[in-house]
Amino acid sequence: MFQRIVLLLLTFALIDCPDVCAESDDALEGKPTPIIFDTDITGDCDDVLALAMLHALQDRGECELKAVTISKVNPLAAPFVDAVNTFYGRGDIPIGATRDAQHRPSLYLELCKTRDGDSLRYPHDLLSSKDAPEAVVVLRRTLAEAEDASVVIIQVGLAANLADLLDSKADAISPLDGPALLQQKCKLISVMAGCFGPALGKPRHDEANVVNGIDAMRRFAVQSPDDVPVVWSDYRIGIAVPYPRESIARDFSYVPHHPVREAYLLHSGPNHDRPTWDLTSVLFAVRPDDHYFDLSKPGRVVVDKEGFTEFHPDENGRDRLMEMSAEQAIRVIEVQRALSSQPPRQAVSR
Predict the structure, then answer these.
(1) Matching InterPro entries, A to Z (predicted)?
(2) Which fold has domain 33-340?
């Protein structure tokens, strides 16, 4: 009797969210999920933690980081990403950088220039973001080379790069324009952006990833193909699962110098539990079937001219909002800590 009840509950759960929650063929076959990580890794340090998570998940065979694209302008953003990737033993991952988005200073990107004697503390090849190809070129090439309906894009910053992808035309890389290429190759877009309810004592909140690039986020929300699901982790999700400061103090000491720990300390100091906005989008993207989060009913996300976001229920909608209970938040905090601080198979540091 108990087994029949469990089976019925599982059946109803799958019926309720057939497109996003149902296990993919790759998950069932144990194949790693191909990932494109689109990040504004300049201002906040949660991007660094999220990138570390992806490397840990790749070490576990759960995903394969195919490319990193950067959605804010800073000459050290691409070198820093290259340094982190190299630290985790993957210095050959393609990196692209936008040329036309918000210019952003950083408290931690200078780490990639740190030297211990004559050697870089965190070795890397890229010396400037200008040395990296344009992000839209990397996006088009990575998608064109992928199997159909295989790629998950994680967008945890401005929508500048995906908006430019959607505006891109057929070229030598692919005979498909941006929307068609995304439609053919991408199976999910996991986004950290927006705020879909009261926050900070206000009835609505103008979240940074939107207001720092309103036009791009509006273009993305309007032009993204209807048959590629988009799951949104809003501002309130990351606030509810802060990264524990004791992890920064304890969990990264397996090497004398660690780029994640040092970036966190330069940004937030040792006495702050930083919200994990970007990490939540990574966790859902790679482990959508593990019930760390629930999803809303389908709907449509609308971005207004002031940068506020709204969610309108629509049974045929492309968009879903991530939802999280207090009990789920406990699991999320624990797993994000474990993955972010997991030692790489071969750390490269001096």
Answers:
(1) Ribo_hydro-like
(2) Inosine-uridine Nucleoside N-ribohydrolase; Chain A (3.90.245)
Task: Specify whether the CB–CB gap between 319 and 298 falls below 8 A.
Answer: yes
Specify which residues 95 forms β-bridges with: 68
Alpha helix (H) ranges present in 17-151? 25-29, 46-59, 77-87, 135-145
Using CA atoms, how far apart are residues 156 and 162, in angstroms rounded to an integer? 11
Instruction: Please state whether beta strands 63-70 and 95-97 pair in parallel, antiparallel, or not at all (unpaired).
Output: parallel
Residue matched to tokens 């009261």: 198
What does the pLDDT look like over 281-331, one tens digit per residue? 999 999 999 999 999 999 999 999 999 999 999 999 999 999 999 999 999
**For residue 160, which of 184, 142, 134 has the smallest C-alpha distance?**
134
Torsion (CA) 181, 132, 70, 135 in degrees, nearest 10: -20
Domain ranges of the chain: 33-340
Dump the DSSP string for 211-236.
HTTHHHHHHHHHHS-TTS-EEEE-HH
Q: What does the block give as tokens for 259?
A: 């780029």
Residue 54 has pLDDT above 90, yes or no: yes
Residue 311's DSSP bridge partners are: 301
CA 67, CA 93: separation in Å to the nearest integer? 6
123: its two tokens: 């070795």
d(CA 149, CA 169): 20
DSSP state letter for 346: S
Q: Fill in the DSSP letter of residue 226.
A: T
